[in-house]
Amino acid sequence: MSAPSARVTPLHVVGTAAALVALLPLVYLVIRAGGAGWQTIWEVLAQERTVALAARSLGMAAAVAATCGLVGIPLAWVITRTDVPGGRWWLIAAALPLAVPSYVTAFAWVATIPSLQGALPTWFILSLSCLPYVILPVAAVLSRVDPALEDVARTLGSGPVAAFHRAVAPMLVPAAAAGGLLAALYVLSDFGAVSILRFDSFTRVIYTSYRASFDRTTAAVLALVLVALALVFVLLERRVRGRHRNWRVGAGVARRGEQVSLGRRRWAALGVLMAIFGLAVAFPAVVLIRLIAQGQRGWDPLEWISATGNTVRASLIGAVIAMALALPIGMLAARYRDRWARSVESAAFLGHALPGVLVGLSLVYLGISLAPGLYQTLAMLGFAYAVLFLSNAIGSVRSAAAQVPPLIEDVGRTLGASGLTNWIRITVPLAAPGIAAGALLVLVTAMKELPATLMLRPTGMDTLATELWTRTSVGAFAEAAPYALTLILAAAVPAFLLARIVGRQDGG
Fold first, then answer.
1. Distance between CA 464 and CA 449 in Å, rounded?
2. Exposed, middle or buried: residue 481 (CB in 10 Å: 0-12, 13-18, 19+)?
3. Are 396 and 330 within 8 A, CB to CB?
4. Range in 140-149, 305-314, 342-351, 357-366 with the lowest mean pLDDT
5. How many CB atoms are closer than 10 A to CB 142?
């Protein structure tokens, strides 16, 4: 990694501009909360319920992130390094939970067990939904680590476990920490699952407060507390990531590692994989199919086709905008460790903790006040997706760029390439798989977004998520099931491509 530097580069300027654009909804929250005065803000913060909500939300986010790390890292190792039946096809299965909205998973479980509610079911379902955030990046690193590193450790007297711990585990830390951060931020911002499972968190209370009394000031103050909680996880991830190095500096090409034979234990490993991904993907799908079979076919095929097309279009626009913002921020975070770069990266991650309803409110205000021509357009909706899921893209870009040795860029400069040209011709092509993975990750998560879509969609436009929510809100579960199943299948396409990119990094 480049040494810390006080020098301001064009990348610093562009990255800062991108982060400021992504922080526009946060500006609205500050204006709204600040306009109420410090007395009102303190009254909201001093309430016993606010403290309790902070503890509950923080505890749930930490529990899910820890679970994803403790479960996801071993699963990534089993998938990439062992002879478990199915091999790297399990990477595709590992990505599929991204295609299932957490509120669909919660709905499927509640439809089967109506009494299911509270903290434990919420932790279980959100952990299933967030596992891919850790499994996929860790699997990508494991696939690219040169086995020679472990061989060297073995020649120095270390056993297999110690060699892995000394030579490989430190290289997994950045990917695992980034995945855990995404899981924690996802939990902080989740609205659907916590609402269905009746778990009081900030997002549920903020939405209820606004819907019940249209009290935007209280909602804005609580949202800023949520941002502060998100900042805790961002700073913790940055500390854990530390100064770990992710690239090889030796000559030659890293050879492909040999698979570890699990013997009879491979069947136990297979059973664990089948159980986890069966609960995360197969179970909700089976429940939805059963509801479709049992219910009346009262849904309009033309509305279904239109909703599917709208979902894809809006999500693609969101992915394009997100990557345009994430590229300079991710590159800045990968190449510089100065305070400016760290602040830009941390600020850009905060949008992921904002509930969709508050991003929607912010952009409604900003659109009407500053850009009325963009209000209720696909561009505004795509920008909302970019703000909400920018951290997904930044994490992938940063991890991919961090694995490109700066020495290669230095060689390009000696050959006369300018900074921007060097970046476009050398760094971006080498980091292309990670950049593509970030775009697909934004695409698959944007398809599932609900509150912001409800508030910012163009008049008369429906997506799969809004059609699903409209029907479930009036108890038409059988009519909602086709939209939910289509949403899973539509999101499964980019999830499949994401897994293939991760697998292809090792030639799999």
1. 10
2. buried
3. yes
4. 140-149
5. 22
